[in-house]
Specification:
three-stranded antiparallel beta sheet, five-stranded antiparallel beta sheet, globular, mainly beta, 0% helix, disordered N terminus
Length: 117
């Protein structure tokens, strides 16, 4: 079954600041996510739908790979073509370390690649 939400490697300056359980003083991100929006997500394999709150988050560049799992060694299922705040994310979790040049990050965010994967 295809995954509806793949995991995108969020670059170091794009760590998501949306953990609802964390007190505001614990959030340290100079480029926080913004614009919480309700959106109906759809599983392309079976058409199942569910409402979710998404947030738009800044990425330092475009053409960010979207991985199947929270590990840069896992299969790339697509990409996020645009950088900046054009991309939405559902939640974040720690995972394997992702390196992009000198930047390093182990926070991963769930999203949908631009190809629908």
């Amino acid at each position: 079954m295809r995954r509806v939400l793949a995991v995108a490697a969020a670059l170091a300056t794009a760590a998501l600041a949306m953990l609802a359980a964390a007190p505001p003083s614990a959030v340290t991100d100079n480029v926080p996510c913004h614009s919480p929006t309700q959106r109906t997500l759809v599983n392309p394999a079976d058409g199942r739908q569910w409402p979710s709150t998404i947030r738009y988050c800044n990425l330092t560049r475009g053409h960010v790979p979207v991985y199947e799992k929270r590990d840069a060694g896992s299969r790339v299922v697509g990409e996020l073509v645009q950088g900046g705040a054009a991309n939405w994310f559902v939640f974040e979790n720690k995972g394997g370390t992702f390196k992009d040049g000198a930047a390093e990050n182990n926070w991963w965010a769930s999203t949908q690649a631009d190809n629908g994967a």
